[in-house]
Write a structure and sequence with these properties.
Elements lengths: L2 E4 L2 E4 L2 E4 L3 E4 L4 H14 L8 H10 L12 H6 L25 E3 L6 E3 L16 H4 L12 H16 L9 E4 L22 H12 L2 H5 L1 E2 L7 H5 L4 H9 L5 E5 L2 E4 L2 H21 L4 E4 L21 H11 L5 E5 L6 H6 L6 E8 L24 E6 L6 H19 L3 E6 L16 H11 L7 E5 L5 H15 L15 H14 L7 H26 L14 H7 L7
Parallel strand pairs: 7-8, 7-11, 11-16, 12-13, 12-15, 13-14, 15-16
Antiparallel strand pairs: 1-4, 2-3, 5-6, 9-10
Helix pairs in contact: 6-15, 10-11, 13-14, 13-16, 14-15, 16-17
Cofactor: Zn(2+)
EC number: 3.5.1.98
InterPro entries: HDACs, His_deacetylse_dom, His_deacetylse_dom_sf, Ureohydrolase_dom_sf, Znf_RanBP2
């Protein structure tokens, strides 16, 4: 039984006044008895003589409706006739309480996807509703709340201590650039979905490094500073720098629909660029062996004149020029973010002293930002110093990336012989990333980092770019920093078998870049044979499937000749 109490106002010639509250009960057959009692009492009301019959008729026709106030006149009834609509089966002379049904939901801390309140694990990534990933990093349990996290963390930390016990003495050979003020850069405007480029990205990585005893611990910090105007002007136009600086005076602003800023964003962007510049200088001068820039906002989409793709200042470009200012003649930038670094390519498009190599999803220009075709090789005398490896589909995994490193990246980079190497390390190609939708694992990032660490005498700077699944980005970043600390790589490089799409992409790139890097020709010829073997194998499988059943020869001239031709492949049903 449900009862609702509602206040009703009666209208009189003198104005309005509140009538007593009444209860309407859903009692089945008792409702008619109650209505009849109301009718009998209404018949005794003090309605005027000339209007008595009319009021009686109204009461008979509206047995399920509320009792009329005594002060209501016929004229008032006429003026309020909408309250007596006979076509309406429900009570219409009282306004029901409006009940707003609120659907409770929560956004996953790990991947930002929305979930209904009655589930405890994210439907997309499986992370627990009360995940401890921001406190314990990827060592936090995926399925259990805080109670079980301490045990998981302590076990992980114990294993890390065993692995890294050798490296702890020597050192501050690896520097990490991080400043909490970069966490103040966030989207102010509340939208229907959290922005993927959020402060939690740095928090999760920092928590993972802390849980592993890496930072603070085995890595040394460097002090943060804002990049100077003069240093920024070597990369960006004055107009671009001024536009970013204007956001200091704005509570919330947008450069593009997906690139936000608040009053702290310009400061955070300058701190990020300053950390990258100082790390590059420290590494090249020999004060530290290598480094990891744990910075945001990211930078590789920021071009000479514009901010876009979550990026304000181009951190990798700033680091490259800082390394050259410290004495490096040739700088290699390898960008493995799943999105093409259009800003970095634009900045160095005509520069032969910086070799830019990018591995990214392209899909014929349909994947953001649409640039990065294999035919974009550099301009005005710098042809061949821009190398794009554009994947034709999503789901690209470790084998395709390592295969491309073996046959394109390392051969070109070794011939270029860089003095300094920078990795634009976006981890949005990692398994589980909601934007990248690829399948690279921490082991894959470990292997790629290890391969690049053999270049430029080990002078290597890793700059964080994208990556929006906290568990993926924190585990991958931790794996990369372990390599910087001297950790061994257990991956086997022999017999790496790429996907067919991956092989075709590598062949396309080799065919284009052979004009500028002749040392690629032998690899191209070898892979052409491998492609031919793929084609022969595919044809053999098709023939084998077609000849699973060989019909008798005499079917060709008998009543089963149609079936004969279908089975032998001479006739195809549409």
């Amino acid at each position: 039984m449900v009862s609702e109490t509602v206040q009703v106002s009666c209208v009189t010639n003198g104005g309005t006044k509140s009538n007593e509250s009444f209860k309407r009960k859903h009692l089945g057959s008792d409702e008619h008895a109650s209505a009849s009692r109301h009718d009998s009492s209404d018949a005794k009301g003090d309605i005027g003589t000339s209007d008595r019959d009319m009021a009686a008729n109204i009461n008979e026709d509206t047995q399920k409706k509320v009792r009329l106030p005594k002060e209501l006149t016929f004229q008032d009834m006429y003026n309020n006739q909408d309250a007596f609509d006979e076509d309406d089966e429900d009570d219409s002379d009282w306004e029901p309480v409006q009940k707003h049904i609120e659907i409770l939901k929560w956004f996953c801390t790990n991947c930002t996807m929305v979930n209904l309140d009655d589930v405890f694990l994210c439907d997309i990534c499986g992370e627990h509703k009360e995940s401890g990933i921001l406190r314990h990093g990827f060592y936090a349990s995926t399925f259990s709340p805080e109670v079980e996290l301490i045990q998981v963390e302590s076990e992980a930390t114990g294993s890390e201590k065993e692995i890294w016990s050798e490296a702890s003495a020597s050192n501050c050979s690896t520097a990490v650039g991080f400043d909490e003020r970069m966490l103040l850069h966030s989207e102010v405007e509340i939208k229907s979905h959290p922005h993927p480029e959020r402060p939690d990205r740095l928090r999760a990585i920092a928590a993972s490094l802390s849980a592993a005893g890496i930072f603070p611990g085995k890595c040394c910090p460097i002090p943060a500073r804002e990049i100077t105007l003069e240093e920024l002007q070597m990369v960006h136009s004055s107009e671009h720098i001024e536009v970013v600086e204007l956001t200091r005076q704005m509570f919330s602003s947008y450069f593009t629909p997906d690139t936000y800023a608040n009053e702290h964003s310009a400061h955070a962007a300058r701190l990020a660029a300053g950390l990258c510049a100082d790390l590059a200088s420290a590494i090249f001068s020999g004060r530290v062996r290598n480094g990891f820039a744990l910075v945001r906002p990211p930078g590789h989409h920021a071009g000479v004149t514009q901010a876009m793709g979550f990026c304000l200042h181009n951190n990798a470009a700033v680091a490259a020029l800082a390394a050259q200012a410290a004495g490096a003649k040739k700088v290699l930038i390898v960008d493995w973010d799943v999105h093409h670094g259009n800003g970095t390519q634009e900045i160095f498009d005509q520069n032969k002293s910086v070799l830019y190599i990018s591995l990214h999803r392209h899909e014929g220009g349909k994947f953001y930002p649409g640039t990065g075709s294999a035919f974009e090789v550099g301009t005005k005398g710098a042809e061949g110093y821009c190398v794009n490896i554009p994947w034709s589909r999503g789901g690209v995994g470790d084998n395709d990336y390592i295969f491309a490193f073996q046959h394109v990246v390392l051969p070109i980079a070794s011939k270029f012989a860089p003095d300094f190497t920078i990795i634009s390390a976006g981890f949005d190609a990692a398994r589980g990333d909601p934007l990248g939708c690829c399948d690279v694992t921490p082991a894959g990032y470990t292997q790629m980092t290890h391969m690049l660490s053999t270049l430029s005498g080990g002078k290597l700077l890793v700059v964080l770019e994208g990556g929006y699944n906290l568990r993926s980005i924190s585990s991958s970043a931790t794996a990369v920093i372990k390599v910087l600390l001297g950790g061994s790589c257990e991956c086997e490089l022999e017999n790496i078998i790429p996907s067919k799409a991956g092989l075709l992409t590598v062949l396309e790139v080799l065919k284009i870049q052979m004009k500028y890097w002749p040392n690629l020709s032998s690899s191209f010829e070898k892979l052409q044979l491998q492609r031919a073997m793929y084609s022969v194998e595919k044809k053999h499988k098709q023939v084998k499937r077609r000849r699973v059943f060989e019909p008798p020869l005499w079917w060709r001239w008998g009543r089963k000749q149609l079936l004969f031709h279908i089975l032998t492949g001479h006739f195809h049903l549409k």
